[in-house]
């Protein structure tokens, strides 16, 4: 009877589904790492086909924007210096829809943000040689008052599309910083030279690996020091009530919706169940009634 009463609660039922999925996918160790150090690496999430397709689509966008051809293996600082962010990739190519729905990262994101979470943004930090490519340590919760809540309001999945190393401009993370409930100070933000924060850890990754982290975690990236381009795919998620970086509600192309006609989770991720943002039509009370009430539903 007690178990039946517990499962009648939507949040308890959602947590049970999330935990069952994590167990099914063999992610128990990753869940422990999320709780203890704030981030976890999942090796080999993307196969070679997905990696190549994503790189080709991103490279095409960058070359269109810059008007020049870029050799991903040999580019020098004269060819492409520093870093540019390539935003709003979801509708550039079907491959990004595919990656968005990757099972293992999405299971952990569901644990962090609930089944009702939405896509905030999907883009690439396209990085060449140079100090101007450094991204100082920061928390993605930095625009909310301190102390940060213990539960995650936003969370990241960072896919390596090219090899990650410190000299190659890798992602940097500070273990256990999600427990500190604050952003780094100016003195703690540096990732360059002698002033670099010694607590920052370089993520040495192979193409296809994914790192998932709690929104409180301090993160950034080191400057690239070797020829070539470091490419990632940053897939950023938020709880349903947090303002997203990109707009997806009511602007998803019809062909994308048609491809995911029977995929309710995809529709939720692109804000299909968002009840706010109305105009003269007023609120949709049916959607409001379906809004989550807990951390996991």
Overall description:
With 297 residues, this protein is an alpha+beta fold. It has one domain (27-289): q2cbj1_9rhob like domain (Jelly Rolls). Helices cover 29% and strands 16% of the residues. It has 9 helices and 10 strands. A 6-stranded antiparallel sheet has the order 1-8-5-10-3-2, covered by helices on one side. α2 (10-24) packs antiparallel against α6. The chain starts with a helix and ends in an 8-residue tail after the last helix. 40% of the residues are buried.
Alpha-carbon distance between the two ends: 22 Å
Strand content: 15-25%
Q: What is the tally of beta strands?
A: 10
- What's the mean pLDDT score? 94
Q: Identify the overall geometry.
A: globular
Short description:
By secondary structure, the protein is α+β, with helices and mostly antiparallel strands. 29% of the residues lie in helices and 16% in strands. It has one domain (27-289): q2cbj1_9rhob like domain (Jelly Rolls, Sandwich), CATH 2.60.120.
What's the arrangement of secondary structure elements?
Blueprint: H1 2-8, H2 10-24, H3 28-36, E1 39-42, H4 48-66, E2 83-86, H5 94-100, H6 103-113, E3 118-127, E4 135-138, E5 154-160, E6 171-173, E7 201-202, E8 210-214, E9 219-221, E10 232-238, H7 254-259, H8 264-269, H9 285-289
Antiparallel strand pairs: 1-8, 2-3, 3-10, 4-9, 5-8, 5-10, 6-7, 6-9
Helix pairs in contact: 2-6
Notable characteristics:
single chain, 297 residues, alpha+beta, Jelly Rolls, six-stranded antiparallel sheet, four-stranded antiparallel sheet, 16% strand
């Amino acid at each position: 009877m007690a178990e039946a009463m517990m499962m009648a609660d939507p949040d308890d039922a959602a947590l049970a589904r999330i935990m069952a999925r994590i167990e099914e996918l063999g992610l128990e160790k990753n869940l422990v790492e999320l709780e203890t150090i704030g981030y976890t690496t999942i090796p080999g999430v993307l196969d070679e086909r997905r990696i190549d397709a994503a790189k080709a689509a991103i490279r095409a966008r960058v070359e269109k924007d810059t008007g020049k051809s870029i050799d991903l293996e040999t580019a020098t600082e004269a060819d492409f210096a520093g870093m540019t962010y390539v935003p709003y990739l979801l509708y550039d190519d079907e491959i990004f829809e595919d990656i968005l729905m990757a099972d293992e990262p999405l299971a952990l994101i569901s644990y962090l943000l609930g089944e009702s979470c939405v896509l905030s943004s999907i883009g690439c930090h396209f990085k060449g040689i140079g100090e101007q490519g450094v991204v100082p340590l920061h928390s993605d919760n930095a625009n909310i008052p301190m102390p940060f809540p213990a539960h995650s309001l936003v969370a990241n999945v960072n896919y390596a599309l090219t090899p990650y190393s410190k000299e190659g401009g890798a992602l940097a993370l500070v273990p256990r910083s999600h427990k500190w409930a604050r952003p780094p100070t100016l003195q703690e933000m540096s990732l360059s030279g002698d002033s670099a924060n010694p607590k920052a850890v370089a993520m040495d990754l192979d193409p296809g690996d994914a790192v998932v982290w709690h929104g409180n975690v301090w993160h950034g990236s080191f400057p690239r020091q070797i020829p070539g381009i470091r490419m990632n795919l940053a897939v950023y998620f938020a709880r349903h009530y947090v303002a997203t970086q990109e707009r997806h509600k009511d602007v998803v192309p019809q062909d994308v919706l048609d491809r995911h006609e029977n995929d309710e989770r995809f529709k939720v991720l692109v804000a299909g169940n968002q009840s706010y943002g109305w105009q003269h039509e007023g609120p949709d009370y049916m959607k409001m009634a379906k809004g989550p009430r807990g951390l996991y539903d």
